[in-house]
Every structure is written in C-alpha cells, then in structure tokens.
Design a protein that fits this description.
Elements (H helix, E strand, L loop, with lengths): L3 E2 L18 H7 L1 E6 L4 E6 L4 H9 L8 E4 L5 H13 L1 E6 L2 E6 L5 E2 L1 H4 L9 H8 L1 E5 L12 H9 L3 E5 L2 E5 L7 E3 L5 H11 L5 E5 L5 H12 L3 E3 L5 E5 L8 E3 L4 H14 L1 E6 L7 H9 L3 E4 L4 E5 L7 E3 L11 H9 L4 E5 L8 H8 L3 E5 L2 E5 L8 E3 L3 H13 L3 E5 L2 H4 L5 H6 L4 E6 L3
The structure holds uridine-diphosphate-N-acetylglucosamine.
Length: 448
Amino acid sequence: MEFCPLSVYSLTAGSSGSPTFLTTNFSRYIMDKLIIEGGRPLSGVIDVNGSKNAALPILLSSILLEGPQDFFNVPNLRDIRTTLKLLGLLGCDCVQEGKRVHMEPGTLTPEAPYDLVRTMRASVLCLGPLIARLGRATVALPGGCAIGARPVDQHLKGLEKMGAVFTLEGGNIIGRCEHLRGAQITFDMPTVGGTENLIMAAVLADGTTQLNNAAREPEITDLANFLNSCGARIRGQGTSTIEIEGVTSLRGSTYSIMPDRIEAGTFLACVGMTGGRIVLTHCPVEALESVISVLESMGMRFEHCEQGFAASMSGPLKATEIRTQPYPGFPTDMQAQVMALMCLAQGVSIVDERIFENRFMHALELVRMGADIQINGHTALVRGVDHLTGAPVMASDLRASASLVLAGLAARGETQIRRIYHLDRGYERIEDKLSAVGARIRREHEDD
Ligand code: UD1
C-alpha cells in the first residue's frame, strides 16, 4: 500500500456550514480561540453532559406531539440552540433553562429555512415528522459539509416507500403525502439519521413499518424509548430490525436524554494523552465498549469506582489499529481524538476511516505540531513521535477540533486553536471542564 506524505496530500474542504446568519451571541463564539499550555497530567472528576446526537432528533420529534413536553439533561450547545430556534419557527415553542427544555406545541408550519439548515445538517431530521404530522414539508437541502458529501438519499427513498413524493425546487426538498402508510424498508447502509427520520415518520403512519439494516446506535435507542414514553409502539431499537406500529397521536411526557458517549470518550482519551487519573460521572460505559477496548490496547486502565468510571494512564502509549464502523464498531466520531493519541504512541498505528470521506482534516494540523502522519485514501498511517510541539492551529470540524485540544494538552509549549465555533457545536465549555481537572486551557477572543 502506498502512502503519500501529508505535505502533498490535498484535502478538499466543502462548505463547512459557516454560521453567517448568527446572532451577536453566536458571533462571540466565532471570534473565540483556545489557548493551551501542554504537559500537565489530569486529575479529578468530570460530569458527562447529555448527548447532543440523542437530543437533536428527540427535540425535533416535538413536531409529533400533541401535548407539552419536558426534556431533561439537554446540553447547552450551539446545535441545540439552533434546533430550538428551528422548532420555534416550525410552531413548537421551546424554552431552555439550564439542562431543561420545556416545549409547548402550537400551530405547525412545514418550512425549514436554508439559513438554519445550512448551519446544522441534522435539521433534515424534521422532514419525517413534518410529513407525518402535516402531510407536507419544505426543508432546505443541507448541501456538502467538511467531512464529505453526506447524502440524504436513504431518508428520501424510505419516505417514498411510505407514500411520500419529493421534488427539488430552489434548493429545497419538498415532500408531500396525505397520509404515510407502513412499509418494509431496507437501507443500503446503516444510517443513523436515516433510521431516525423514518422512525419519526412511521410512528404516526397507517399500519406497521419494518426497518431492515437499520443503524443500532444508542442515540437511536434513546429516541425510540422517548417516543414510546409518549405512546408510540416501537420494538427492536438497538438491533438492525426495528418495527414501528403506527398510532393515531402522541402525547407529551418527561424525558431525560442519555449521556454523551462521544464527550465521555473524548475526556477518557485526554487522560491517555496527558497521563494522570480522572473519574467520569454519568459515563455511558456500555455504549463506549469499542472505544474503551482500543484505549486499553494503547495502555490505558479503566475501573468502576464509587464516584463513577475511572480512567488512568501511567506508562508509554502503544500503537494500535482502528477501523471506523457503524455501532457497535469503533465510532467515526472518536477517530480524530484517537489519532491524536497515536501521534505519541510507540510504533506505527493505522486508522481506516470507513464512514466518511474527507475525515482526516485534523491530520494536517497535527502534522504542524510535529506528528508524522501519511494518508492514502481512507487510511492513515501514524508513526509515533517523541513529542508534539505547541503551534497555532485551525479547527476544521467538530471532532477535528477535539483532537487538536488533545494534542495541545500533551504538546510542549503553547497551542492556540482558532475557529473553535466548531468545538462549541458539540462540547459545552470544554475549557472549564478540563481546567477543573488540572489542564492549563483558557478561552480568549480572537482579536484580544
Ligand atoms: C450521525 C451523527 C454523526 C456521526 C454519524 C456516523 C448525528 C446528528 N450525527 O450523522 O455525528 O458521525 O452519524 O456515526 O447524530 N449515507 C448515505 N445516504 C444517506 C444517509 C447516509 O449515503 O441517506 C451515508 C453517509 O454518507 C455516511 C454513512 O451513510 O457515509 C453514515 O451516515 P449517517 O449514519 O447517516 O450519519 P449522520 O446521521 O449524518
């Protein structure tokens, strides 16, 4: 296999969804940067947030409800604020107070505007619920993103099987169907968003829908459990065959979102990078099995303790191999963070990225910090180096940003990470959580 050095490897960055519509509050984040002084071992306790990727579809399924709803353990993140704004425009009035969101259903409208959808691809998840509830939906086509083309053909094909008809007009997907009916749907590949969209469409359809080759991610199970708490009849969540028996209406309930396995996994990986010991409270250990076993193979130790789940690292990191796969395989959302660990591991590590094209944007920045990485197509070869050196670097997408934080925590000297609005999409005040366990990390305005 031939690997090309990163200096001659050209990465194509599509539209990364830069947030031009943003309010004054958001623009503050655009200008922020993180400054990290590396080399401090971590020690202490970190509480894991509610899951962003579970919260997004769960909040959007408010569209399906006929009564008020209270959501708990909702993270305070930019993507969540975008979702609440979108829900407000669609007719579901939401108020967030700390980790609680209260939703009051109002008169629904079927249009999700481009300005919101372009900043958050997950907005496409309102397609299924809007057609189910209103018989029509106009949702801007999300377009490309920094980690690949990310099509939505599986969402549309599934909805078509249930009777929906789609046209593309002025950059919008327009979907219509008087009343969705249950269908047998087999996905070409397990898709998280596709599975979620079709579950939400099928809960109010006539008859029973069977989803085959469905994605099995824990966030899908959380969505199905939430909908069942509102009166839906969903079975098989967490397996690749999900059955949804349509009901005529759904009531509101109270529901607590599952903890964020990717946030938790990122903090576990931080300890591998710096050494030390941290304890995570509300850590979704079972959902992190594949990540934990890779981190163990690199020399980390884990144990359940009275306060939660403890991670420690004392010796040198060892090289390993990962291949990203649908759950329960190794998650693509942890690939960039583990690549940061590989940069300092003894020996040669291999990353095989099988879910998304263009998901090596972080590699170029890691190389600027002294890493030795070569890319060939969807494979990266990482030769461990003795140390990384702090440098000014640029965040390119959410998880790429997290890998730069990890690198910065271990690097000699100061690392400045710009464009951290990507990071703020998925991590709530990461600098506060890491400072509390001993890291030297602070947020500054770019123009300070
Ligand atoms: C979700 C997660 C994201 C994670 C990803 C994979 C949310 C909000 N985002 O994204 O963080 O990285 O799962 O675990 O939960 N595909 C198609 N056609 C489709 C749909 C998907 O070809 O209609 C392909 C994608 O290009 C990709 C693969 O299927 O190669 C998996 O994508 P999918 O699981 O749908 O990812 P998302 O739901 O977008």
